[in-house]
Structure formats: structure tokens, C-alpha cells
């Protein structure tokens, strides 16, 4: 599969058929090879696309329609089942090509480890990169049960690559004591439990900088997103997460890429989680792709 060929399955609503003319590229990363609790997020990208047909194309939050942004749906990267390292290498190569074509990469996971190769690729293009991370979990372990390639390790890898002071985590409510201590000792920003208010305080400090945003759907309380692999009580509401996306949209940062991960449709028979994810992606497209090209 080439990175610029048309996707033959379901596409995200209002996707543009031509890669060359598009400003952004949506792509799926259907990998859940390293999860430590409940697998199933590899089915997230396809289901989010399928339910997107129920979206309104107009965002009353941003007063924009999806037809105002050209984005190409490249489909799912055909990752080799069970081979974590090769999968990560394929993701990085895929995103390298998107960035070389000067497109905005918008990934859909998949477990959170898939964000690691994407951020590696983005960092090569933007060496002054900062990362905004919204999640229930710190994801700062060096390894999980002896395995460094784990959904519990991506933010630690990112912090070691771009520098801990360039990583800003929000909504965190779960992690080992050692993870929180490592962040404190190394100057990494962690906002426990909340997203919106601490985000408002941080965004002015990132003005003008290229920023990558990674959102784990489990930053939401399980009442709002039960369809995820590692649910964790005490999260934020979907209204708050939408407000955070809009806060970023109206800020002076340069969003240069983003992803939404950890939707596992099998655990949510109401499809509430996938539908929420598709709406979040709509707002990310309308808010952030515009910011990049402004």
C-alpha cells in the first residue's frame, strides 16, 4: 500500500479523494500488540470512520464545515500482526512521507505506543517540537514487565527524545509513584486530573512553537468513553475535552500533527466512544489544520 493511494474501504466523512490537493492526511494505526489489559484498539480506526457518517459536517463551535478543509483518508497502515518493532518502523516511514509532502498528519490508533514513531518523524522536521499529551495515564515507564515496547512507555520515550521540559501532560490520574517522581525530577509538566484550566495556563508559553497533540480517549471518564482498553475512573467529560481542542484552536501555537488513540469498540455496544472520537476528530480537523496553514 502506498501512502498516497485512495482507500477502498469506508472513509472519514467528507474526505477529499485527491492526496496531492489535500492539506491533511488521516491514517489508521491498527495495532494493539503490547497492551497489558484489554486488546481491541486495533479495530478503532475502522469503526471511527464508519460511524463518522452520522456526523454533521458543520461545527457550531468553530463555525466551519468539513468541506472547507481538504483532507485525504489514506486508510489503515497494513501492520504485521504481533510484530511491534516492524509495525513502529512502518508507521514512522509512513509519516515521514506525509511530512515530506507537507501534509498535516492526523493519526487514529490503535494503542498509545503508535504515537511514539509518529512523534519521532515529526521531530525530525520540527526540532523545536513540543508535545501536548492528554491521557489518564502517565505512560512514563521505561519498560512494562521487562518489555520496553509497551503502551505504558511512549511518553517516556518522547520525553527522552525531545527533552522532558518540552512535554506537557494533562488529565493524568494514574501511574506509578516512580513515574510521577521522574517527571518532577526532570522538569516535565504534569497536570493531575484536570485538562482545560491548566491547558489555558500553558498555551501562552508555547506561542509560535510547533506542537504535536496526542489524545488518549481514556482521558475521558469511563462514563463518557467506556470503549477503551484501560478504563480509569475520575476522568473529564467529553464537553471538557471538546473545549480543550477549541482552546488549542484559538491559541497562538502551531499544531503540526496530532493523533487520537485507544478506542476499542468491542467494549462499548452503544458505540458512544467511537461516535465521540469521530466528533473529536472533526473538531481537530476544523480547528488545527486551519491553525497550521494560517
Automatic annotation (TrEMBL):
- Name the residues that bind Mn(2+): 112, 135, 137, 139, 216, 218
Single GO MF descriptor? metal ion binding
The reactions it catalyses are:
agmatine + H2O = urea + putrescine
- Tell me its EC number(s), please: 3.5.3.11
Q: How is the cofactor bound?
A: Binds 2 manganese ions per subunit.
Among the GO biological process terms of this entry, one is:
spermidine biosynthetic process
- Highest taxon listed in the record's lineage: Bacteria
The protein's matches in Gene3D superfamilies, at most eight in alphabetical order, are given as: Ureohydrolase domain (3.40.800.10)
State the name under which the record lists this protein.
Answer: Agmatinase
**Organism from which the protein derives:** Parageobacillus thermoglucosidasius (Geobacillus thermoglucosidasius)
Amino acid at each position: 500500500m502506498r501512502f498516497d493511494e485512495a482507500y477502498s474501504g469506508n472513509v472519514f466523512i467528507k474526505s477529499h479523494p485527491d492526496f496531492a490537493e489535500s492539506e491533511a492526511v488521516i491514517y489508521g494505526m491498527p495495532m494493539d500488540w503490547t497492551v497489558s489489559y484489554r486488546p481491541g484498539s486495533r479495530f478503532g480506526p475502522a469503526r471511527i470512520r464508519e460511524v463518522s457518517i452520522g456526523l454533521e459536517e458543520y461545527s457550531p463551535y468553530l463555525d466551519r464545515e468539513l468541506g472547507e478543509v481538504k483532507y485525504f483518508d489514506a486508510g489503515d497502515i497494513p501492520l504485521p500482526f504481533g510484530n511491534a518493532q516492524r509495525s513502529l518502523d512502518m508507521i514512522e516511514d509512513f509519516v515521514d512521507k506525509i511530512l515530506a509532502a507537507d501534509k498535516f498528519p492526523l493519526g487514529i490508533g490503535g494503542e498509545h505506543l503508535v504515537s511514539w514513531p509518529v512523534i519521532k518523524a515529526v521531530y525530525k522536521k520540527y526540532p523545536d517540537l513540543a508535545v501536548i499529551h492528554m491521557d489518564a495515564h502517565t505512560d512514563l515507564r521505561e519498560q512494562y514487565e521487562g518489555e520496553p515496547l509497551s503502551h505504558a512507555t511512549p511518553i517516556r520515550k518522547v520525553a527522552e527524545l525531545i527533552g522532558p521540559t518540552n512535554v506537557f501532560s494533562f488529565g493524568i490520574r494514574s501511574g506509578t509513584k516512580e513515574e510521577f517522581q521522574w517527571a518532577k525530577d526532570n522538569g516535565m509538566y504534569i497536570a493531575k486530573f484536570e485538562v482545560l484550566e491548566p491547558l489555558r495556563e500553558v498555551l501562552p508559553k508555547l506561542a509560535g512553537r510547533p506542537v504535536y497533540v496526542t489524545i488518549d480517549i481514556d482521558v475521558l471518564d469511563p462514563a463518557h468513553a467506556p470503549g477503551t482498553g484501560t478504563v480509569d475512573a475520575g476522568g473529564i467529560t467529553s464537553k471538557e475535552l471538546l473545549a480543550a481542542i477549541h482552546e488549542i484552536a484559538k491559541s497562538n501555537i502551531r499544531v503540526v500533527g496530532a493523533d487520537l488513540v485507544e478506542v476499542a469498540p468491542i467494549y462499548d455496544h452503544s458505540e458512544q466512544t467511537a461516535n465521540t472520537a469521530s466528533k473529536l476528530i472533526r473538531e481537530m480537523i476544523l480547528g488545527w489544520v486551519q491553525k497550521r496553514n494560517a
